[in-house]
Amino acid sequence: MNIQINHMTSAMSRIAIGCAVALLAACGESTGSTNTASAPGITGTEIKIGSTQPLTGPAAPGYSEIAPAANAYFQYVNAHGGVFGRKITYEYLDDGYNPTTTSSVTRKLVLQDKVFAVFNALGTPTHLAVVDYLNSEKVPDLFVASGCNCWNDPSTHPYTFGWQPDYTIEGKILGQYIQQSLAGKKVGYFYQNDEFGLDGVKGLDQQLSSVATRQNYVPTNTNVAPQISALQASGAQVVVSFSIPAFTALALLTAAKLNYHPIWVVSNVGSDVPTLTGLLTKFSSGAAGGQLLTGMVTDAYLPLVTDASNPWITLFKKIHDQYIQSLPWDGNVLYGMAAAYTFVQAIKAAGRNPTRAGIVHTLETTKLTGGPGLAPYGYGSSNHLGYLGVQVATIGADGKATTVGPVYTSSDSGSINQYSGTPTTPPSNGIPS
Amino acid sequence: MAVALSGWRSALTPTLSRHLGLALGGGILLLLLSSQIGAYDDYNLAAVAIFAIATAGLNLLTGVNGQLSLGHGALMAVGAYSTSLLLRGHDLPLLLVLLASLASASLVGAVFGVAAARLRGPYLAGATLALAVGLPQIATRYSHVFGGEEGLTVSPPAAPAWLGADFPPERWMAWIAVAVALVTMVLLGNLLQSSVGRSFKAVRDHEAAAALAGINVARTQVVAFVVSSACAGLAGSLFAYWSGLTAPAGFGVALSLQLISAIVIGGLGSLSGAVWGSIVLVFVPALTSGMASSLNLPSSVSNNLPLLIYGAVLVVAMLVVPYGIDGGLRRLFALARARWAGAPTNHKGVVDWDDPAGG
């Protein structure tokens, strides 16, 4: 009898201990130490995000490396414990740079694959096709891979955030450089006739008072001889080019053929040296190459891809060599990894169990610092712009870029300011804390 | 009363009542189906219905009337741009927009059809190809009207309030597209059974013989072109609502060639072939996209895999079912019937040109 009572008490105490443990666990959940499925695309073990990318079609050369590079960084993070123990799954779909396809594959990401957010979707015309849809579905649309200032519109598109400096800011800072360092020279423009080129020209015009001639091109017509001849005839000694890589290469080759040798000032997206060298060699069937790039002026908002002493470059190059060795180490790969780094910063800042509205709130209220960019992030409640500025660089005879002067920051209509912050270094494990 | 009823009965010919019955049955089936599937499947169902309208029209022109058009994507663009321009700054009723887009594409089709009626074989193919290449460029050239490369956005049709706030807009779009597609199929099915339809086939099979039989060959060809363009315009209009954007890149030569490949895979000359082709056109890319990030293949391979698979489907279809999926199924049914009922059958499995609606 006695023994039985003893048994019963021990059984009851076991139950009591069990209850206490359960209670503790419940407590723990409310303070956020366990992973819950807090939003679509987020489970206890996974964060699923998606993207639309030009893996095929006219924009694929170069740009098709960006998503695999971002994915390599995510794999690196996953291999080092993930984000609060969750692994990032990155599903990027091909849209062939066709806005109609972007529209349908974005629905696949949102409705079928139920991604938490769309990340780094590439292209201005392509992404314009879905920006309204993503915002009406309240899907975070993070770090669009395009410098159009259309992503910075928090009142109409509260879920959309840009990433790279917009083309107007770039145009202003390049314009200032021309005004200061190439003073007295005749300037001509060569630009893509869409939002990209026109936004850049808007920035240039704020700085430069007289322009010898303005020439534009459409990406579907590869004959740029009329435009380059007009530039030559106008006597322009400096040509500012807001062009995609293929058209930078065509312009350089056409000018060389016409024995026209101005100083080329090329916006960041059209100036990646490895990409251009390849295109120049290909278009001229080997007759010309990287030597045409000597003396070119451009700008950068990330550390220079050739700067092996920079700790960010060391980190990203190491991840490149480990995960995506088959791709060239170039500006596109750096771009993808740097954008992926910003995403990990943002999702970590949003806490253990993020929600879709939560990550937007975090980006608007928590100042993200310490990313790979040369200038600081601009994210805030009234600003959905990413990096705020650029640094001018020139290309040497060895194909290596050298930065010139300080980093400048600006906004579309504000003044240009010198940035005085010190360059950041990545955390020792390469993952934002 | 009895007289009125018998008058009504005589208007309801066996063909019409059969087509109406088929459409009604199909409609109820798709309505039930659309409520069971997810929003993304509804979205794809709408795409199938939209492409079925365009390919049915193209099949009437190419399969039934024998005029090859490589420019139907451009005619869809006419419909889509009409819709986008009409809806810019206005909120017009859907039916009105659909009819206006249909009318504008018919007009372009009529003008082009007059030229097309004078052309044969490769010259016709070349002229229609020029339409496909040239027309979308107008949008880039006059970008202040047509929005340039970025195109014009269109808001999806809003579902009526009585369906509830949670009703997915994709399902509403699917219902609209399926309803329009069924109406189009009934009308085309009846047209093909009429004397007009017979003259289409007569012109295709032998122009001189058709002319000797009293058929105005040129007029018949223009009529076929107009009817076909009307379908393309209607499909383009729905396409604008469905994708939310009308941009030149969406209506390139690739779209025109996809429409042609769809009727070849589905089955030339039959309406059900158009439907089969549209299913392939929508679901093969939908199933294969995403392979790039999910397979561990070199990116140069995996990036191009969906295109490769689409090409492979086309080649395999040509080898296995040279008369399209529709022809293949007919052959299968014919063989099965011969096996179990011992009924005589057409062993070639050739599409029955004179009964394209099937049955």
Which tags fit this structure?
heterodimer, A: 433 residues, alpha/beta, Rossmann fold, 3 domains, 4-stranded parallel beta sheet, 12 strands, 41% helix, globular, disordered N terminus, B: 359 residues, mainly alpha, two-stranded antiparallel sheet, 17 helices, 1% strand, disordered C terminus
Report on the architecture of this protein.
The complex is a heterodimer of chains A (433) and B (359). Chain A is α/β, with parallel strands linked by helices. Chain A folds into three domains: 1-28; 46-165 and 305-387, Response regulator (Rossmann fold, 3-Layer(aba) Sandwich), CATH 3.40.50; 167-300, Response regulator (Rossmann fold, 3-Layer(aba) Sandwich), CATH 3.40.50. Chain A has helices at residues 2-31, 60-63, 66-79, 99-112, 124-128, 131-136, 167-181, 195-207, 225-234, 245-257, 273-283, 311-323, 331-349, 356-365; strands at 46-53, 87-94, 117-119, 141-142, 187-192, 213-217, 238-242, 263-266, 297-300, 389-395, 401-409, 417-418. In chain A, the strands form three sheets. A four-stranded parallel β-sheet of chain A has the order 2-1-3-4, sandwiched between helices. A four-stranded parallel β-sheet of chain A has the order 6-5-7-8, with helices on both faces. Chain A is globular. Mean pLDDT of chain A is 90; it is low at 1-9 and 15-31. Chain B has 359 residues and is an all-alpha fold. Chain B has a domain at 14-252. Helix content of chain B is 74%, strand content 1%. Chain B contains 17 helices and two strands. The two termini of chain B are 34 Å apart. Mean pLDDT of chain B is 87; it is low at 1-6 and 347-359. At the A-B interface, helix 3, strand 2, helix 4 and helix 5 of A face helix 3 and helix 14 of B.
